[in-house]
User: Fold this.
Amino acid sequence: MNLVDEIMESKIRIKIILALHELGELNITQLAKIIGSNYTLTLKHVKALEEVGIVKEVNIGRMRIIKLNKDTPAYKHIKDLANTLKGLMNLK
Assistant:
């Protein structure tokens, strides 16, 4: 599956990207609450996005912090996509 398919496969993945773009970094519990999902399902989608390099996990003690991976070549495009989707959501 290519990167676009991985992102667009699920509304939850899009919500994860938008939340991380807007808020920077979150733990899984915070992320699940913000996107309106449960912990297990959010973690599953975060892991899928992590496998393709879109997000990365940083461990701080026992807490897992998730953030967009700025080191990936696709970061600029993901940021542009997030801005575009955010703009579309504001249209009536």
Q: What stands out?
A: The first helix runs from residue 3 to 8. DSSP finds five helices and three strands in the chain. The beta strands are 25-27, 55-60, 63-68. The longest strand covers residues 55-60.
